[in-house]
Amino acid sequence: MTETRPKPFLDEAISKPGCCTSLLESQSTPDMDWRSIKRSFMTTKPGNCPYKPGQIERKLVTPICNGLEEDFDNLSLIGFRRSHDFAYRPVCPNCNGCVSVRVPSPKFEPSKSQRRIMRSNEDLSFSWEKNRATSEHFDLFEAYVQDRHFDGDMALMTKSDFQEMVEESSVHTQLACWRNEDGILIAVCLVDQLKSGISAVYSYFDLDKSRRSLGTFVVLDLIKQSCKLDLDYLYLGYWVSGSQKMDYKARFNPLEGFIDGRWQLLNNE
């Protein structure tokens, strides 16, 4: 999953139509025909990287329009992610540390500790819900970001910002929800359903339930749900080697990363 943020960072994008045509063509695969994708791309203004101190961050951005979901499916195959009604991927100067990663769900092999986490959460019920920003969801989200991201942009998000994050989508977006036996919401993941898999956009959960290891459990159960839907992958966003915020993604085996224009197995040992 990728850290999201309020929408203004996209509103500051600088238009550079066609700036990534060669990039897309160089990373085409047999599953994609880039001639069918007619759109403009933009680059965001330089900003501070949230993962590497002193590094400048820039993103390649393109709007996602209703009726063009297949375009987003194709873009996701070369490492793009979604935020609101935009698809983006890093194009940082002098750095390629952000690697788009995914778990091949049918091949996933849980570790001993991951199997223990799955057993400890067997009492939770799972459901797919519409991407609606209810008060119940915002209360859980707000408590989560005020603790985990108290020093970042996300801690400043209002209920209106949250509603935009959850509801502004031109693709098939849902909320994966987990509740306890009393029906209380304790974990959520905003997800996009692609042709090739489930893309985990952002998760939040009850931090008072630390014994449940809910962050890990959400990923484990999404792998399970993708298999139930007969989908091949769970997309986890970007992974940065050495980043404590991202380390957990390397614990899911096998893990593939989009490097040098192709998906390849990463060494998780």
Number of helices: 7
> What is the N-to-C succession of helices and strands?
HEHEEEEHEEEHEHHEEEHEEE
Low-confidence parts: 8-36
Name of the CATH superfamily of the largest domain: Gcn5-related N-acetyltransferase (GNAT)
SSE class: alpha+beta
Number of E-type strands: 15
Q: Give the fraction of residues assigned to helices.
A: 10-25%
**Biggest beta-sheet profile:** 8 strands, mixed
CATH class of the largest domain: Alpha Beta
> CATH topology of the largest domain, what is it called?
Aminopeptidase
Number of domains: 2
Gap from first CA to last CA? 21 Å
Q: So, CATH architecture of the largest domain?
A: 3-Layer(aba) Sandwich
Shape type: globular
Radius of gyration from CA coordinates: 18 Å
Q: In what range is the share of β-strand residues? A: 25-35%
Query: Biggest sheet: strands side by side, in what order?
Result: 9-10-11-12-13-8-14-15
Q: Give the averaged pLDDT, no decimals.
A: 86
